[in-house]
Amino acid sequence: MPLFLHTIDAFTDKPFAGNPAGVCVLKQALPDELMQQIAAEMNLSETAFLVPQEDGYNLRWFTPTVEVDLCGHATLASAHLLFESGKLQADAMARFHTRSGVLTVHKVGDKIELDFPALHVSPAVFPQSAIPLLGATPVAYSTNADGQLAELDSEQAVRDLSPDIRALHSLGLGSLIVTARATTPGLDIVSRVFVPAFGIDEDPVTGSAHCALAPYWSSKLQKTTLSAHQASRRGGYLEIEHRKDRVLLRGQAVTVMKSELFI
Fold first, then answer.
1. How confident is the model over 166-188, as pLDDT tens digits?
2. Residue 221 and residue 204: Cα distance in Å, rounded?
3. Residues labelled catalytic
4. What whole-number distance in Å separates Cα of residue 102 and Cα of residue 36?
5. Distance separating alpha carbons of residues 85 and 65, to the nearest angstrom
6. Is the pTM of the predicted complex or chain greater than 0.90?
7. What is the per-residue pLDDT across 141-153, written as a single tens digit (0 to 9) for each?
8. Which of 36, 140, 153, 167 has its CA 20 to 30 A from that of 254?
9. CA 214, 179, 100, 11: dihedral to nearest 10 degrees?
10. E-assigned strands of 86-215?
11. Residues with Cβ within 8 Å of residue 167, at least 6 apart in sequence
12. Cα gap 248→242, rounded to integer Å
């Protein structure tokens, strides 16, 4: 049975930027092992699988090596495909049933808005042995059950960072957000995200990381709505809004490829 897979660049308004996600809309669920094999074949940071149900879609996300609980860019890509293909009308609300609960998505102007859970972090002590591996000394460091967040002293320090990713992973820093207050006009914050624990050295643009960055920086900057840039090689832009236990992520996406997989 042929399956159609789309490659969609998320959190960008132009091809070959942002974060590419695979999206596969199914008529019925596939075995977990097969979805993992397809994600490995796609070799993107995440591939999303959607199955229609009465009040929306079941949505699951797979990296090339594991299934994950929450993924922003592949959710944005999934919604973009549903709107673009006409499966959802432009004024409709998409409802995704996921391992992180029901996530709703709708269009706001030329952007797509995702309603995600806020992920709060707590202060911690950065391991001294990790400083030379990171290549910088954090001015603040926090963690939660999902990973680690290190704040650096400048935007340029984040952009120039060249960490020993695998060595950091061996010290338990396998899901690391590095961030700083932005000095570039029009931006509030910058970040980079390293997730070797999930088979991804550096993720181009990470929606779920901004579920932690939004409450973190909203408190520091005394602003609820922030303009964010993830400063990977591809780069991507998000507007993020912190609302108590929720975070709204807004961005654009571009379809760049459609392929047919025979299995």
1. 999 999 999 999 999 999 999 99
2. 25
3. 46
4. 22
5. 29
6. yes
7. 999 999 999 999 9
8. 36
9. 80
10. 94-98, 101-108, 111-117, 122-123, 140-144, 147-151, 176-181, 189-195, 200-203
11. 133
12. 7
